[in-house]
UniProtKB/TrEMBL annotation, chain A:
<protein>
    <recommendedName>
        <fullName>Probable tRNA sulfurtransferase</fullName>
        <ecNumber>2.8.1.4</ecNumber>
    </recommendedName>
</protein>
<dbReference type="InterPro" id="IPR004114">
    <property type="entry name" value="THUMP_dom"/>
</dbReference>
<keyword id="KW-0820">tRNA-binding</keyword>
<keyword id="KW-0963">Cytoplasm</keyword>
<dbReference type="Pfam" id="PF02926">
    <property type="entry name" value="THUMP"/>
</dbReference>
<keyword id="KW-0175">Coiled coil</keyword>
<dbReference type="InterPro" id="IPR049961">
    <property type="entry name" value="ThiI_N"/>
</dbReference>
<dbReference type="InterPro" id="IPR020536">
    <property type="entry name" value="ThiI_AANH"/>
</dbReference>
<feature type="binding site">
    <location>
        <position position="268"/>
    </location>
    <ligand>
        <name>ATP</name>
    </ligand>
</feature>
Automatic annotation (TrEMBL), chain B:
<dbReference type="InterPro" id="IPR015424">
    <property type="entry name" value="PyrdxlP-dep_Trfase"/>
</dbReference>
<dbReference type="InterPro" id="IPR015421">
    <property type="entry name" value="PyrdxlP-dep_Trfase_major"/>
</dbReference>
<keyword id="KW-0663">Pyridoxal phosphate</keyword>
<dbReference type="InterPro" id="IPR016454">
    <property type="entry name" value="Cysteine_dSase"/>
</dbReference>
<feature type="domain" description="Aminotransferase class V">
    <location>
        <begin position="2"/>
        <end position="363"/>
    </location>
</feature>
<dbReference type="InterPro" id="IPR000192">
    <property type="entry name" value="Aminotrans_V_dom"/>
</dbReference>
<keyword id="KW-0808">Transferase</keyword>
<protein>
    <submittedName>
        <fullName>Cysteine desulfurase</fullName>
        <ecNumber>2.8.1.7</ecNumber>
    </submittedName>
</protein>
<dbReference type="GO" id="GO:0031071">
    <property type="term" value="F:cysteine desulfurase activity"/>
</dbReference>
Amino acid sequence: MLYDHLVVRYGELSLKGKNRRHFENQLHETVKRKLRRFDNLKISKLFDRLVIELNGQPHEPVVGSLQDIFGIHSISPALRTENNLDEINKTALIALKDAMENTDKRTFKVTGKRSLKTFPVNSMQLNSEVGGYLLRNTENITVDVHNPDVEVKVEVKDTGTYISCQTFKGAGGLPIGVGGKAMLMLSGGIDSPVAGYLTMKRGVRIEGVHFHSPPFTSERAKQKVVDLTQELTRFSGGKIKLHVVPFTKIQQIIKDKIPASYSMTIMRRVMLKITEKLAEKNNALAIANGENLGQVASQTMQSMYAINEVTNLPILRPVITMDKLEIMDISQKIGTYEISIRPYEDCCTIFLPSAPKTKPKREKAIRFEQNIENLEELIEEAVQGVETIILEEGRSTETTFEELF
Amino acid sequence: MIYLDNSATTKPYKEVLDTFVTVSEKYFANPSSLHSKGGEAENLLGQARRSIAQLLHVTPSEIVFTSGGTEGNNMAIKGIAFQHQNRGKHLITTGVEHASSYESFQLLESQGFEVTYLPVDETGSVSIEDLKKSIRPETILVSMLHVNNETGTLQPIKEMGEVLKEHPKVFFHVDNVQGMGKVHLPIKEYGVDLCTISAHKIHGLKGTGVLYVKNGVTLSPLFTGGEQEFRKRAGTENVAGIVSMAKALRIILQEMNAKKDHLITIKKQLLNGLKNIEDIEINTPEDGSAPHIINFSVKNVKPEVLIHALDEKDIYVSTRSACSSKQGGASRILLQMGLGEQRASTALRLSTSYDNTKEEIELVLQVLQKEITNLKKVMR
């Protein structure tokens, strides 16, 4: 185990003026919570970095966990040494040899960064001093400042100098919690979890909303959404609430009173109304969903126009412009794909008419909706009947049969 | 009772039986049924898959449940051969495989496949050089045992894997039925594409096993008629057997961690004791063998007679692989090792578990010494 530290660099945070402290605190909290499952780690805040002392923990799983956290730009396993040029040189040599051993990497450059201004060697001088030392003490290795195989980063801080040869990309984005909260409409398909992930990427907390219509949709369809939400907790900085709305009665009434070609438009209007109410109740200022232009009948411009009208809340549609394949790529990357493709029917497909209107008229939708006289009452009843499930990272969502294993 | 036939099968752990009974009683529904009882069974099956994947350091979608070692080997070998025959019809294995592999290859030979049987040296091990020489552009599969079921000889899986990493189109199947829980085999690290495991060799129950199939590897199923096991193996899942296998695997890996030296200690004790008995020749190599199998021949003594003599003293050992024990005659494995007809037809196998004690081994050695002396007088 060569590396004893991790240097964690922030992303866009450096740009954000006076909000910065708030942003950093949020990120720090998330990192602390996420890494709780590893023993012996020590996390310290430096000016624009986090430094994690590994104390014997292998760095790979810790890096893996950090890569799920938004707001982190990059992570480097590092060796710490005293602020002393001799020590820095020797340690850089160890790190470089380790990085090149058993590989065909032959070129390097040194990137020095002196944050501690009292250190007598400045950044430029560091590059040439350390670079020169490395060249003198190795064979067949040359400097390439443009496309080096290995970049040796030397960061001089007041707590010591950190030397690293390898950098892992972070998730980017903004720390969760700095961007307010949105209600995420989760059907169980491929798109909505991806929309949730991308919403969280901009620092927004999410709460899930799922419409459940037993016995037309099964317990397994609901479990699927619970599992999807559970998967998303990896990125949420802790817990995510999932609100399951009892939707059977409303769906039956829609089927009864609305012409088949408009039933889906009306259903989606009602879903949006209910979600808006839940947003209000839970202090969320926006609604996020997995809508995508042109993919299916409800997702035409005309359809969105006819549906969107029922709410004034901003609707975030992070995947609106993506191709299906792009969305699938992300869903595979974040681990929701395998869950999303489980073959259970959800509330959107169960009463799907054979020929839904792809270009519904807003006026007609409004008129048909009035067929349901007690709509407000029904909505209120659904909101009252919501079951809220709290999912937490690392917890199992299913009945566990621990004694059996 | 002193049970030294753990390579034939092991005694199920008490905990494994408890799990089997509970699952059979409470979660008997078909995991494919749509009702909530079916959902419960499906959930249980999923947890077993995840648990086993985690213990083997692979992903859940790479775990295919089977009925055991024989099916796993058949499925891997025939499945790859039939699925990929358009790319080539050349297969490589060794001359010392378990019957379930060996006979699969024989069947394939009769159907137009060409099989290279790598020779083994006197320890039962194949050479890397021979493997390298045998690989051709039309080779699609290399398949071999990790731990030989008769002699305990280890094959150089790691080195084989290294060679095969340079031949990405050749699939690598390892039969790890005897090695699981006894000898460490990091599947991913060694570049293994398919790996057979059986529950009843790790104190689980008969009729359950796992074939690890690396993500992206396609094979033609042996059984069709359902979508179970990622369409690789149709048939209603044996949920109770599978869940109890997950438990057996967890327990044996814990034992392996805690008691690895114990097996080595009693193996040394056995070897030293056997060496002191006249007319015994040890067939298991001292280096490069698993810690739980010892094979030896007793000159001029029919092994069956010795087995029955030990039986009367409540000691249970075997002649060789249980799957070929009723054929009589010389062991194919020992013949391949060049040990000769005489030695190959007088072999006995002792195979230990983590539960065997030094005292038991001491007793076995004493009884062996006495019985062999007696038998020699009679049989002369």
